[in-house]
Write a structure and sequence with these properties.
- Pfam families: Bmt2.
- One of its GO terms (cellular component) is nucleolus.
- Residues 1-12 have a biased composition (Basic residues).
- GO terms for molecular function: rRNA (adenine) methyltransferase activity.
- This protein is α/β, with parallel strands linked by helices.
- It folds into two domains: 1-79, no CATH class; 86-256, Rossmann fold, CATH 3.40.50.150.
- It contains seven helices and seven strands.
- Strands 3-2-1-4-5-7-6 form a seven-stranded mixed beta sheet, with helices on both faces.
- The chain is globular and about 55 Å long.
- The relative contact order is 0.11.
Length: 284
Amino acid sequence: MAIKRRPKRLAHGRPPAAKREKEHMSSKQTRTIIRTHHRLQKELAAALRSGDIRLADEINTKIEKNGGLKVYQAASKLGQSKSRGGDSSKVLVEWLKKAEIIGAKEDASSAPYRLLEVGALSTENEISKYPRTIHVKRIDLNSQGPGIQQQDFMERPLPASDDDKFDIISLSLVLNYVPEPVGRGEMLKRIGSFLRQPHNRRSSMLPALFLVLPLPCVANSRYLDEDALLRMMRNLGFILEEKKNTLKLCHYLFSWTGKSDNKRAQKKLIRDGPGMNNFCIVIE
């Protein structure tokens, strides 16, 4: 008989890092690694939720055989490399230039804007080219090297004052990594605690959240479409400023109003059809 236990935090059960990931992987290999890792993480979360520890151990073994978090990160990093056009921070830079927050010549006369990059894989992405204007704090569950703090965002201590908060938070391909719908909602609810208050804003667009998801999460889900996502974000206090879709990703920039109405968002069938996925966000 399975023994019920409380669901573990996001970083729980991560397998040891693989000895060495392949330095060169084809696009097909990276996609397979990423999809398999996401599927196994969802299966692991379901096993832990049901209290089936034996099944959870079996899934952890499969994750380890698939290369674990380190190989997943290597595949994600390749997918975001310049050679494959995947650095999502380029879109953020475009929007910040449009808003004249950053430009060709950096303004060193005032304090830089503060950006928290959750799930950072590199210290050399496009946003890193503006160190005088944008000061980037990078965190990840498994740091890839110097300049990235190893930390679970859900366990990051809340800021002690507005000075410790950020002007921008980047969640690029992070929310979809969270294995459970409720966990995704909890992550979104937590964002506002780390953003500066709007009355201290230095730009009409800031403070802001930069959110990037795989396009199928919004365009091909039974339980989430763009209207539902934007409604959910408005209820959490975020107003859409910019959006851009590519063949694989959807990018959003939301300004933070500082107010949330705490409305719940349950799992609800929006549409259905063959080949659709079950990606969902639940706000409790």
